[in-house]
Design brief:
Keywords: Membrane, Transmembrane, Transmembrane helix. This is DUF4142 domain-containing protein. InterPro entries: DUF4142 (IPR025419), Ferritin-like (IPR012347). The chain is mainly α. It has a domain of 144 residues: Ferritin, core subunit, four-helix bundle (Ferritin, Up-down Bundle), CATH 1.20.1260. Helix content is 71%, strand content 3%. The protein is built from 7 helices and 2 strands; from the N terminus they run ααββααααα. Strands 1-2 form a two-stranded antiparallel ribbon. α3 runs parallel beside α5, α4 runs antiparallel to α7 and α6 packs antiparallel against α7.
């Protein structure tokens, strides 16, 4: 009886080991999502965040260039017309740089703005006069603020030399554009996102 029981236990143990080996062989190893999105290039590793930055800058130009064209015929303010022309010209230059960087790093670029940007363009295309002036200044100022945060975050942590250089170029353009838009006197700063809450100051230790 005991001998029979020992034999059954031995066979059961064999089945368990065999099943475990089968699972190890059949199941693929776990893959770190961040590592899977990492690409090695001659200028350093390229991350998903690096690629996202290049794509976002491309899309910014794809809607701000036609928005600048709208300002030539739809704006009432001469300053808005001038700002629209300057931003459009800058984005033509920046778009060329973006495409060169994307080609060098193997990043596929979109050929149209994202859904929100397309809605903003449709809104501007339906307006003229003071309404256009106000919405042009505020839509573009809010958009520049958002992409500025992305650029700064990538620049602070990227391991890719080409992306660092690109981010620095983008920051120069974005800072210039925010100043231009604010120079119209139409930007409603109360509608911009609140600055991040600062970390609490460390308490002073008792001496």
């Amino acid at each position: 009886m005991h001998r029979l029981l020992r034999g059954e236990l031995f066979m059961l143990g064999g089945f368990v080991v065999a099943a475990a080996v089968t699972i190890v062989l059949v199941m693929p190893p776990s893959i770190d999502p961040a590592a899977a999105q990492l690409t090695q290039t001659s200028s350093g590793p390229l991350t998903a965040a690096d690629r996202d930055l290049i794509i976002k800058v491309r899309q910014a130009g794809l809607w701000e260039m036609p928005a600048g064209q709208y300002s030539e015929t739809r704006a009432e303010s001469q300053r808005v017309k001038e700002v629209g022309r300057l931003i459009m010209q800058d984005h033509m230059k920046l778009d060329q740089i973006t495409r060169q960087v994307a080609k060098k790093l193997g990043v596929a670029l979109p050929d149209e703005p994202n859904a929100n940007q397309q809605r903003w363009l449709a809104q501007l295309a339906a307006e003229s006069g003071p309404a256009f002036d106000k919405d042009y200044a505020n839509l573009l100022r809010a958009s520049h603020g958002k992409v500025f945060i992305v650029i700064a975050a990538v620049r602070s942590g990227t391991r890719n030399a080409e992306v660092r250089k690109f981010a620095e170029t983008c920051i120069t353009f974005v800072m210039r554009h925010m100043g231009l838009l604010e120079s119209t006197g139409l930007v409603d700063h109360s509608q911009l996102p609140e600055p991040p809450t600062p970390s609490p100051a460390p308490s002073l230790a008792w001496r």
